[in-house]
Amino acid sequence: MTYGVALKLDHGLVFMTDTRTNAGLDNISTYKKMFTWVDEGESVVTILCAGNLATTQSVVSLIDERMKAPSERSPSILGLPSMFQVARLVGNTLKEVIAANAQAGQKADSAFNATIIVGGQVAGSEPRLFLVYPEGNFIEAGDDTPFFQIGETKYGRPILVRAFDRGMSFEAAAKLLLVSFDSTIKANLSVGLPLDMALYEAGSLKGGLTRRFEATDPYYHATSDGWGVALKAAFDHLPDVAL
Amino acid sequence: MTYGVALKLDHGLVFMTDTRTNAGLDNISTYKKMFTWVDEGESVVTILCAGNLATTQSVVSLIDERMKAPSERSPSILGLPSMFQVARLVGNTLKEVIAANAQAGQKADSAFNATIIVGGQVAGSEPRLFLVYPEGNFIEAGDDTPFFQIGETKYGRPILVRAFDRGMSFEAAAKLLLVSFDSTIKANLSVGLPLDMALYEAGSLKGGLTRRFEATDPYYHATSDGWGVALKAAFDHLPDVAL
């Protein structure tokens, strides 16, 4: 499993994902699931991947043009005139990879499917955020639901629904995501630390701050512990049911 | 879907379940999913059902001995010497109903499966709580995990994990369950009001307080609104991430 979230704020975009992959409970590894392409002043694209690792790695390699020699690469994802075109490119690449793998037939338990969040900005337009399905089609985050979750979405959703506010600062958004990830990590073994976070400041058209929260990260632990205490206090403060 | 929870407290047992059933999104109804049998001074048994409604209603009817004339009924679930035997009876009945329905083959999209929480007390022993699987086998709530959830368990789990305490009062437990149900109802359309709650006081060996929270219940709304505010305040109070 995986847990990934992207928020569309007034200030820009915030991405967070865990790094645990698993093939069964007895075979877990750590892999990056967040990738960013930057053409400073022109376009910035970040993707979060959930699903079959062979599929998503293949998609990333194709977008990166890793079939070419390193010196000849110029990822086509960066030359496009709009984020809609970027989402189309990711969707088509994803669909092709799944179709190519499926030709040989399904041998393992897990499907070849994957879901990808695509967010970023192209010069001349606003930042945009898309959720791309394994079929290659996609939806865009709107004003009513300005965030997307992929993977194990349920445990971390209640706090997002309650505390998300598109006017919030990057600092508050990072805190919100840590709380949402903490609830998920406490409940699902297949979502695990370290966590990768990336911020993109609207209009900057350059790579933003990235941060990895390791299992030993003091802020992560302060948030997790502090949230437990705060939640308990909030709960105790609610009036009991009169029975 | 369904959401049902049973807590094993030092003071006794607390059960809560929603009442929404659905066959697709366009066909929803309200049905009781909680049933209690009482033989005062001897034994008290409550069950919560999740899964195929035809299966669970059939199980309840068989336990109720509704194949006999009303005057001849004396539910065998009440004459048993231990809660372990009660759980076995429920498990065997459930397994038989599923097997009988499956004989004719599966025609609809949904499976015949169901999961049942069984809790109660038989004179001479402590209160006990079991989770019965469609295969008829079951597990018992222990000291480390003294509660069970069935149905749509994920959205409401984080607050249970954080705030449950087996020494808590019935009033606090009712509040905890309302918060857990509120998080679930906000996220999954197939879990809906009204909610049924039942309390069983350890050692009482008689039917305890029951309460139905309707959609208009002022306490339910006070809890839901109050929890939103309290959660937001708790979140704002956590230190932001220093970026």
UniProtKB/TrEMBL annotation, chains A, B:
Taken from the UniProt entry, a GO cellular component term is: proteasome complex
- The highest taxon in the source lineage is Bacteria
What biological-process GO terms show up in the record?
Answer: proteolysis
What keywords are annotated for this sequence in UniProt? Hydrolase, Protease, Proteasome
InterPro entries (alphabetical): Ntn_hydrolases_N, UCP009120_prtse
Q: Which GO terms describe its molecular function?
A: peptidase activity
Question: What is this protein's name?
Answer: Putative proteasome-type protease
Taxonomy of the source species: Bacteria, Pseudomonadati, Pseudomonadota, Alphaproteobacteria, Rhodobacterales
